[in-house]
Amino acid sequence: MDRNLKLIRPLLVLALLAGVVVAGSGCGTTSADVERGRVLFVQKCGTCHTMAQAGTTAQIGPDLDDAFAAAREVGETGDTVEGITAAQIESPRPVTANSAVSMPAGIVEGQDLIDVAAYVGMYAGVPGAAPPRVPGGPGAQVFANKGCGGCHTLAAANAGGMVGPNLDEALPGQSMATIHEDIVDPNKAIAKGFPPDLMPANYGETLTQKELDDLVQFLIESTSGGKASNGG
C-alpha cells in the first residue's frame, strides 16, 4: 500500500501540472547549460532543497530526489521533470507567506531558469547521482560541490567564473582567518568593483566546520603556495 501511494502521488502531481508545463519557461526552445544550472541551483535553491548531485542537504523545502524518484521509477523522463521544475519555479504552489511551505517566485528567471530546470531534470531522483569527483583533496571537493567555480576564477580548480573576484589575484598574502571570514561574512569586506550581496551569506550554516577548514586550506595552498599566516 505504501509503495503504491509513493508511485501514485508523483503521477498525480504530473497530471495536475500538465497544463502549466506547456506554458512554462519554454524549455527545449533555448539551449540549456546544465553545468551552469548546477552552480545556480547550489547558490539559489540548495539553501532549501536536498539534492544528491548538487551536494545539498537543506530540509526547508522538499527533497527533490525523493520528490521525483517514484516518477523516475515508472519511466517519467528528464524532460518531464524539467518542465515541472520550470513551472514550479515560475508559479510556486502552494502560495503562502511561510517559506517552509511555499517557495517565493522569481528565484531564477530567463536563461537562469532554463539552466536550473535542465539541471534538475537531468539529475533529480536519479539513482546513484552524486557530486562530480574532482582532484585536489577535500577542500577542492567542497569548492566544486558548492559551485564556487561558477563565480570565481581559480586555476587550481580549472575554474573560470567571472561573477566574483579572481581568486588567483585576490587571495595571495591573505591570512587563513581573513579568507574564512570572507566566506562566512562576504559583505563585511566587499572586493573593489563588486556589489554587495553577490555571494551567498549562509556558508557558515551550510558548511560544516571541517568543510570550511578544508576549503580555506585548499584556497591557501592554491593561491599562496600554502604560505599564509593564521592571524587576521
Can you tell me about this structure?
The protein folds into two domains: 2-123, Cytochrome Bc1 Complex, Chain D, domain 2 (Orthogonal Bundle); 138-224, Cytochrome Bc1 Complex, Chain D, domain 2, CATH 1.10.760. 48% of the residues lie in helices and 3% in strands. It is built from ten helices and four strands; from the N terminus they run ααββααααββαααα. The strands form two sheets. It has a two-stranded antiparallel sheet. Helix 1 crosses helix 3, helix 4 (78-90) crosses helix 5 (110-123) and helix 6 (138-145) crosses helix 10 (209-224). The radius of gyration is 19 Å and the shape is globular. The model is unreliable at 1-29 (pLDDT under 50).
